[in-house]
Amino acid sequence: MNDIVTEDSALVIEGLRKTFGKQTVLDYLDWSLPAGRVIGLLGRNGAGKSTLIRCALGLSPIDDGTVRLFGEDVKQLKPETLHRIGYVPQSFDLFPWMKVRQYLDFHAAFYARWNRELCDGLLGRWEVDAAKKIGELSQGQRQKLAIIRAIAPDPDLLLLDEPVASLDPQTRRLFLDELLRLTRRPGKTVVFSTHITTDLERADAEIALLKSGRIQFSCDLASLKARVLRVDLIDALPPADWRHPGIVRQVISDGAAYWIVDGLDEASVTEFAARFGARAVAASLSLEDIFIELG
Amino acid sequence: MGLLMVGGWSLLLFFSNPKVIYGALGAHAYALLFVGMLSAMVWTSVCRPETQTLPGFKRVLASVWTIYGLLFVALPGAMAYAYGLDGWLVASALLALLATSTATGSGVKWAGLIWLAPMLLGIWPDFAKEIWRTLTTSVLAPVLLVTVSVLIARVVWRRLLIVTDGAPTLSPADINASDLSSAADAARIRQAGGLAIWMQKVQHDASARAFDSILGRLQQQRPGADRRMLGMVLLPNAHWRGIALELLIAAVFVGILVLVIASQRGGPPPAGMAATYIGMLTALRFQQLHRATMMLRPSLVDVYFAAAPSSQLAFTAAIAAALRGALLPATLFGLLLLGIVSLMYPAEQRLAMIVGGGVGVYAGSLASLGVVLMLLDSERPRVILGLVVLGMVGAIPTSLCVAAASASPAAGAVVAALVLIAAFGFHQRAYQYATRWPIRFDAP
Question: How far apart are CA A98 and CA B295, in angstroms?
Fold first, then answer.
């Protein structure tokens, strides 16, 4: 279900395996990201989202597989390729003694393209005091600063690990809108991991689900919603132990029954229901419901 | 541990010589100083606001204190009683010692002053004898010691259970810094009061000025500016202002200490012993550097992307090279201490101490940094290993150099050369070892 690997893929991962002791976190994972997409990496806590992002950037040693960023082996990235990447880690602890302005100037000195106007504008709009020491910022403000630092060099690939986890709902919404407005441009690829499904719906991002150490699917939201449905069975109930490929879950409760189906067309569902003398009524699910059912 | 303690003390029953029990009690008291201090440090790190909300947390802490009381105070007291000594007095004295050492380890601000007492008593030995006589003869002495211990323990208890919301204040990778990075340490700084806050502010301002200066060079793309900036990020106080400030503070404290020791009737300890201790003290600063490099690893990602090295190995080499910035302040610190302490000795010993000891602390620092580099890739900080290894690495070259220089200039030169060659060799091997693999960005 993954996209076909193309010449202009920003990231291509093949057979990635990562273990921590006896625990396998990423299990021969394949994933490719064509350039120019905004992708939400969805997964439950502990699914390995942060590990996947760190392995994709070559920041964590891997047990097997290959990772290529902009066509280059991640272990041997050229300096100019490193400057095409923006990364926002989940936590941000360095330079507590440094003032915000110093921190940004420090990074600006290294980058050939550094958007100072954008930096100053975001500091103002996101209410991050440039004169404050980083150690004095709240967790949310630090996260904002890390994002400003990541997008100021205008990266071609931006990876954000739970970028809005520390923000309140109002700020999160404003912040995500602005972030996507800034980054959703031709040739720019954005990956952000999250388990907040409403953010993904609002961002209209492609969804990639990480589960059991693999990317289970990667597709746009509309396709996903068309694919995963709730089918209520009316007039009759199926046998309790009835199973069929494509039916993810069957629930029978209080004289009613429904299926969660994945990838079955309406005709098939109607035909299955008819076997028990039932009628099938399909309804779409919210992304949160889909995540709960599939995640 | 309890079984070991009981077993150890029980062995004494096989000895009839009273010197053995006195010796055992002395060793126990000496060990208790460290047990109390180190335990209190652990308790301080455990007693966070979050952990204090755990059910029964205070009860568990109180249980630990009770066990400590039984093992380290009641048991030796009972053994002393079994040998015909005043068990109450022994137990109450040990209790006072335990309370005092835990007060020091838990960061109670006046606790450090307690250690001035034995030094001052050394200046007035007659007064010390009078106190000793009163303590050993008065029936109220145990009551007084227990009362003082309880009062100190109450302060420590409240200090441990204080709820603060301190934030990181400085890069932890700074062996010059007087504060560390954890919330508990930040709280300790605030508790220490005006002088500590002032010192911290001066350090921060000095670091900010040095940073701006290097940033200017970096913006002008001056050669070597990126390397210096990496050093600044890792060691924010390893610049001349920061080093000067630290040396000034060290000079004041060591100066007072030297004045007190010089005033004592027994005179100073042997020069070689003092120099060895300084070498060890200098090397132990690298334990903080080791701990800090572990803590900084995840955050170095930020610098990695900005600096955009040609490879991760090149980045590792740059980090290892930048850490060499810790050599100068460490060596100067050791030299300063040697210089001040040497004032207590005759001129010929003074020269041997400064020159021989200077070479020794430099060699010790080189080797200690080598140890830090070798542990760069370890999965977690090696505290005990680090303390033991660094202590030896600091003490041995300094003692060798001072001993040889005291014997004759020629012997001093030969030993200094050998020690330097060995230290350089070890350091270079450690550097090569550390840069064979890319640096880990994983948290320890």
Answer: 17
Closest CA to B349 of B431, B267, B405, B293: B405
The more confidently predicted of residues A4 and B279 is B279
For B376, other C-beta atoms within 10 Å of its C-beta total 21
When mean pLDDT is compared across A64-78, B275-289, B319-333, the lowest value belongs to: B275-289
Model confidence at B176, pLDDT cuts 50, 70, 90, reads very low
Residue B49 reports pLDDT greater than 70: yes
Contact criterion met (CB < 8 Å) for B308 and A96: no
Q: What local confidence, expressed as pLDDT, does residue A217 receive? A: 87
A256-293 core/surface letters (b: 16 or more CB in 10 A; e: else): ebbbbbbebeeeebbebbeeeebebeeeebebeebbee
Closest CA to A192 of A91, A87, A282, A98: A87
The residues that bridge with A190 in the sheet, in sequence order, are: A38, A158
CA distances to B124, B286, B331 from B273, in Å: 24, 21, 18
- Cα Rg for chain A, rounded, in angstroms? 22
What pLDDT is recorded for position A78? 92
Summarised one tens digit per residue, pLDDT across range B297-356 is: 888 888 899 989 999 999 999 999 999 999 999 999 999 999 999 998 888 889 999 999
Give the model's confidence band at B179: pLDDT under 50 very low, under 70 low, under 90 confident, else very high.
very low
Residue B444's nearest CA partner among B286, B300, B284, B285 is: B300
Mind telling me how many Å the CA of B306 is from chain A's nearest CA? 6
ipTM: 0.84
Name, in order, each residue with C-beta under 8 angstroms of B40's C-beta and a sequence gap of 6 or more.
Answer: B101, B102, B103, B104, B105, B106, B156, B160
Distance CA(A64)–CA(A72), nearest Å, equals: 17
Q: Determine contact, residues B158/B138, Cβ cutoff 8 Å.
A: no
Q: What whole-number distance in Å separates Cα of residue A69 and Cα of residue A32? A: 10
Does A76 lie at the interface with B, CB-CB under 8 angstroms?
A: yes
pLDDT at B192 (0 to 100) = 54
Count Cα neighbours of B37 within 13 Å in the Cβ-side half-sphere. Answer: 11
Chain B residues with CB-CB distance to A78 below 8 A: 310
In 3D space, the residue among B175, B444, B355 whose CA is nearest the CA of residue B283 turns out to be B175
Sheet holding A64-69, edge to edge: A23-34, A9-20, A64-69, A72-73
pLDDT tops 90 at residue A215: yes
For the CA atoms of B342, B344, B347, B352, the dihedral, rounded to the nearest 10 degrees, stands at -30
What is the spatial distance between Cα A56 and Cα A42, in angstroms, rounded to a whole number?
A: 16
User: What kind and span of H or E run contains B306?
Assistant: helix B300-307
Task: Supply φ then ψ for residue A214, to 5 degrees.
Answer: -135, 160
Q: For chain B, which residues lie within 8 Å of any Cβ of chain A, measuring from their own Cβ?
A: 167-171, 181, 204, 207-208, 211-212, 215, 218-219, 226, 229, 233, 236, 295-296, 298-312, 438, 440-442
A116 close contact with B: CB closer than 8 A: no
| CB atoms near residue B55 (< 10 Å) | 7
Read off the pLDDT band of B187 (50, 70, 90). low
Summarised one tens digit per residue, pLDDT across range A160-210 is 988 877 777 877 887 788 777 877 788 889 998 987 888 888 777 889 999
For the CA atoms of B276, B280, B282, B285, what is the dihedral angle to 10 degrees? -170
Tell me whether residues A94 and B441 touch, CB distance under 8 A: no
Average pLDDT over residues A133-162: 88
Q: What is the mean pLDDT of chain A?
A: 86
A27-64: burial string, b at 16+ Cβ within 10 Å, e else: eebebbbbbebbbbbbbeeebbbbbbbbbbbbbbebee
Predicted pLDDT at A196: 81
User: Which among A184, A185, A203, A182 is positioned nearest to A193, based on CA atoms?
Assistant: A203
Check CB contact under 8 Å for B442 and A79: no
